[in-house]
Amino acid sequence: MIKRVLAQTRVELVLTLRRGESVLLSLGIPVLLLVFFSLVDVLPTGTDDPIDFLAPGILALAVMSTAMVGLGIATGFERQYGVLKRLGSTPLGRGALLAAKTLAILAVELLQVAVLTVVSLLLGWRPSGSAGAIVLAMVLATVAFAGLGLLMAGRLRGEAVLAAANGLYLVLLLLGGMVIPVEELPGALRAVARALPAAALSDVVHAASTAGAVPGRAWAVLAVWAVAAPAAAAATFRWE
Amino acid sequence: MPPVPALDVSRLVVRYAGDVTAVDGLSFSAEAGEVLALLGPNGAGKTTTVETLEGYKSPTSGSVRVLDLDPVADHARLTPRIGVMLQKGGVYPGIKPIEALRLFAAFYDTPEDPAALLDRLGLAGVARTPWRRLSGGEQQRLSLALALVGRPDVAFLDEPTAGVDVAGRQVIREVIAELRERGTCVLLATHELDEAERVADRVVIVDHGRLLAQGTPAELMSAVERTTIDFGAPAGLDVAALSAALGAPVVEVRAGEYSVATPPAPATIAALTAWLAEHDLPLGDLRAGRQSLEDVFLRLTGEP
Prior knowledge:
The complex is a heterodimer. Chain A is an all-alpha fold. Chain A has helices at 2-18, 20-39, 50-80, 83-87, 94-122, 131-153, 158-175, 187-194, 197-209, 216-236.
């Protein structure tokens, strides 16, 4: 069982890192946003140094890009190409496949967090606060975003997942408090944004990295999405 | 107690939503070390039958058993013992053949050596070429390798030679023969008569989800008696005179192709060749032997 999970995890990782667009999505775009907007101070970040707002936001973006967009698109194409079907008649089993995908996502996220943290520190980020809360929020958000990615992958064709996931990525990037503070959004939109998992994640990461109080509402929103999104995916997922 | 067959399909019915009946009361079985061809035109229900045996679909009624296990209920106990080649796809587009085989080898307890298996299937030269850049025939051979890497007791091969060139077909036939030697039961779904005739010990002919005939290729071919002698000769023979000489009606089917409406008795053939010799005419393409499996198949499925 462990041998199978590790072999599958290895292949998931190798294939992810081999796809240029997935490396661009998981590392290229976050690093680019981080460097560009910390040097070009045009965003209404509300902090003395834009890096203090950007670094936590981009860490949240990294989680979203890997767990939702990367996983969703890859799984959508695997379904379309019959890979999931073919694996279904091997001794791997669905539980082991899910475990392998989880481990692969966590490995990519670790790499992202390491690279983005180093870049942020080089750009002058001085975090203080609770790493534990950040890790917990990232884990909850990973589950929620993975659920959203698999919800799309389980029903749509590969190309449609590609479009839908990238579209959702852009919307959540703008509404998720990652590059633009949620407080800057107009009233109604702000209320919608606060109910989405992206803003909830960046709220926690922002608060926890500045020793601020983490809003309870953000934890509740994350927890609800972490339960509802995977449940919806599990209920609707088609393996073929 | 008689030995349990490797495959047992009993009065299988599979119906899809919209009341489409893909398989309609099919029964057959196969033993260890037997190569069984499920032969029929496209849409005959072959893939549905195979996928029911693989556990992808549940019977609407009737039953299927593989190695005396239920493919759906006992799925986890069955997967280590079967090998599957889907009709299409099933492989990561970006994976290299050696990586795919190593991955699948890790799923089984006593797998084949991935490098040796690639070599056996003539894929050593493309071991590091991503799947999406392989030719159709190479993709088929890799799919076959993935089905066999776990040393299965039963191998399900759905149209394994589709899009494969002559050399590739020869390799696939040899590999199937080796599986038989080893005692593996092979279920081969195909619409290619030639392949069925060459590799199968037994053929089950299906159409519209029903069994039309089953037996060894020789049994099936001898079951349908030839009722004409067909030959080629220069166009415009005097068929009236020839009919009189043979005592059976002769028609010129196409220019230079003739058909004599009588079973191919040696005496009639002797009379035919004597008549041609008498008129100093050449004889080409005399067909009086047993029918090919193709004739049987076309007659049974009613295809033109």
